[in-house]
């Protein structure tokens, strides 16, 4: 289930909006829209879960969604909700089942309303964690089998049909989270209403779920062609051996030089290796050696590279899974490139420029302090101002090897240009 490498073909999708903000801000914005428009089913996949303002919003969301279903024209028809998590606590991970099918949880485990409090909702919750440290790190939402949200990205494929990207993601979700049939979604009993085309648009009837915080920025792609090429990029996990990190690399050379050939890894490494003029990377961490080597090669080909990342992000996790830190790898990268530039022959052509920006939270303009991010958690790569890759994967060894991730590539110069402009304006 977790070691196969599923592949998908490019599909035609309609990206509608792009949002920047804290996790709380994103859910503050999104949940009222989902409450207003969800008709049949909602799949919510995340990695880490803890009691927080966001989980309180979800509790209010479930109660109001249940009330909506029980007062509908067909009160006996429930709305089907599936929540998927991987990490709740150190204790949970230590004693989690080793089965790839995971284990079903009660709503109370997540601090959500009990089933008898939400009679209009068919709620099922599952956790999957693969010891010793393989979290399912993917984050996405599927609404009614036809609208999809990734972290900071929103896609709807229109026509009210589960086609394209939404169909691929739903099929991928079923293979991971419903492999034993315990999370299955019934077919919609009646034709659904026309799909929402821009769930970010204001609506005077949008319900209030409680206090929230403002987004940092929102883009809408109203002028974008409704059939934009996209590609789902899954990343199953690979086995983790701590000896690969803490013993000399000569003993385990392949573990640090050959990335697992997952669709996400292969796509990113191929396009970094063939980029012609520019790469923009926003990532919480930069520690994976094969990727850094590909960046060095790109610089020597004349590709300009801009990397934005925070300092001191997940220090323990980076040392455990990669044996190094972003700060160390950036210092090494700069030192190597300076040496290459010093001995480079003019006939070899110019080297690309390397710009590394350390994220400064205080420089971010936010409506209030609660909405100001303290760390940069965005995972974004823009290749040659034409391809935008978003999703859950970081540029570290954990995401490239041990964790399970999901990404999406959008082939659009307009998306690349506008997303690149807004993240630079907001985050630096």
Percent helix, as a range, is: 25-40%
Q: CATH topology of the largest domain, which one? A: Endonuclease, Chain A
Count of runs of 4 or more consecutive helical residues: 12
The CATH architecture of the largest domain comes to 2-Layer Sandwich
Q: What is the typical, i.e. mean, pLDDT?
A: 85
* Poorly predicted ranges: 156-162, 197-205, 247-255
The secondary-structure class comes to alpha+beta
Count of domains? 2
In total, the number of strands is 18
Largest sheet: 16 strands, mixed
Distance between the termini: 39 Å
Provide the CATH top-level class of the largest domain.
Alpha Beta
Order of helices and strands: EHEHEHEEEEEEEHEEHHHEHEHHEEEHEH
Gross morphology is: globular
Oligomer: single chain
Rg of Cα set: 22 Å
Strand content: 15-25%
